[in-house]
Amino acid sequence: xxxxxxxxxxxxxxxxxxxxxxxxxxxxxxxxxxxxxxxxxxxxxxxxxxxxxxxxxxxxxxxxxxxxxxxxxxxxxxxxxxxxxxxxxxxxxxxxxxxxxxxxxxxxxxxxxxxxxxxxxxxxxxxxxxxxxxxxxxxxxxxxxxxxxxxxxxxxxxxxxxxxxxxxxxxxxxxxxxxxxxxxxxxxxxxxxxxxxxxxxxxxxxxxxxxxxxxxxxxxxxxxxxxxxxxxxxxxxxxxxxxxxxxxxxxxxxxxxxxxxxxxxxxxxxxxxxxxxxxxxxxxxxxxxxxxxxxxxxxxxxxxxxxxxxxxxxxxxxxxxxxxxxxxxxxxxxxxxxxxxxxxxxxxxxxxxxxxxxxxxxxxxxxxxxxxxxxxxxxxxxxxxxxxxxxxxxxxxxxxxxxxxxxxxxxxxxxxxxxxxxxxxxxxxxxxxxxxxxxxxxxxxxxxxxxxxxxxxxxxxxxxxxxxxxxxxxxxxxxxxxxxxxxxxxxxxxxxxxxxxxxxxxxxxxxxxxxxxxxxxxxxxxxxxxxxxxxxxxxxxxxxxxxxxxxxxxxxxxxxxxxxxxxxxxxxxxxxxxxxxxxxxxxxxxxxxxxxxxxxxxxxxxxxxxxxxxxxxxxxxxxxxxxxxxxxxxxxxxxxxxxxxxxxxxxxxxxxxxxxxxxxxxxxxxxxxxxxxxxxxxxxxxxxx
Length: 689
Prior knowledge:
Belongs to the FHIPEP (flagella/HR/invasion proteins export pore) family. This is Flagellar biosynthesis protein FlhA. Helices cover 63% and strands 10% of the residues. It is built from 26 helices and 14 strands. The radius of gyration is 38 Å and the shape is elongated.
């Protein structure tokens, strides 16, 4: 029994095939006709209650099976009609009598109209929609795959999530491809039903008049009832299946089932309902119009729209009052609690604390952050903190997230040490489309600038997302836009976040692994304060401090020869040459901007000793020329994935960095001694004075 249930579908398909051969008596035929109508109705209701097409991914196969079942019933009914003098069961006879009602011509016209509606309207439309959906789904696959790879590489998703998303994309492509072919089956079924109807009618007339000796009027009455009844019991399930096909392939952007979406979206527009009622009322002035019917419908629409409007206003008013009462109670409780708290003077000190990192949001952005509302901001920050620690060897401190009434609803602000360093604005219900260099077509949207990298972009609606990807745009969701801006801001200011307490934690962590090294380094060779300055110098120029053992050993060795912290930092950079090369090298080569030999000599001769060590004393004209020409050369890196790099000799590297950092903070200055020998250096520009 269990094996039979496991192979039930295979058994059913075999039985359906046998229907094409084995004759059925009218009683069994009635049962199969009822089953056919029931299955078709179930499929239609399922298609109306699913939220997305993949929830009914078996539909193309079901379409084939039900069509085959319907054809098998048609053949059996045709055999009964032609072999039993028009007798093919009670269902067919009742359906034929109900439609014809004594008038053969009218009954046939109604039947032909039903068939043509299915063939020309529903089936034809579903076929076209399935064809377009299949083509666009296949065209969008590369863009979706690239988006998954980008999310995976940035840590927004893990390998399992990426695998699930790729599997879903593949299933979508397979589903719409199968639906494109399955709609051809529906179209062929409609054509076949017309052929079978003609065979039943004309074949029955010939058999009745030649073999049965019936008169023309008797033949017309008997076989017209049987033909129309048989056609209807096959066309009604076919019409249901065709409608279900159209329902499935037209479900694109939805939040719930068709019933939920239709009721929610229609009832959300009471003005449209009232205007429609008013338009019908205006039509009453047309002479001859049925005033009672028009008046009832018009009055019903206007009253319904008015009641919906009042209900929406009452709901909005109740919601506002509840929010105002909740806010007033919250403020009152807060005032009382604050007064009690500040009686203790130690609590006042909490007011003067400065958070390392803060992020404030406008009201509309709170759902992206609030975990209770499904926000994933905190989880994404945790992932970024872990990745940054693995890459740079520095743990980002906790980020204070809070809403702010002083900001616009769509704005956010990023603060470092209590001061604003970055600001952005996003649209929650939109996607950000980054413009490619040469887009295939322009996409309609709201022009803006991507906040993290300054790339020209457009805010686009959800329904334009797939088209934008096809045209070559990189499409990013609002949360990713905000998180990318936050992460890039933290990377730029990470050296400001490395305080003395964090340095002590890093040293204590190394003490577990190499206690002798720590004992020799601190405080014998260097103090915590100077060690912090060296690590800050490295982070400021984007150099990871993960290899703490190499950094400490180099400090010990270099401190014997030099006492200047900048010189010690340069020795550390040379010791970390493999790390630096990996960070700035791309495919075994590195594109750089070089300095002219005469310019380097000019820089060396301009070095002057001061209380804080050597500093650069170039003339203002030379400095202005260097900055201007560097700006022109940086533009050549726009088409590269590698950041701009200026390559100098070791003697002048730190001084060139100090010269350009305030003008071009995203330009890195490296020396020849910091690059592996096996790397191919490609000079894309040269600065000469």
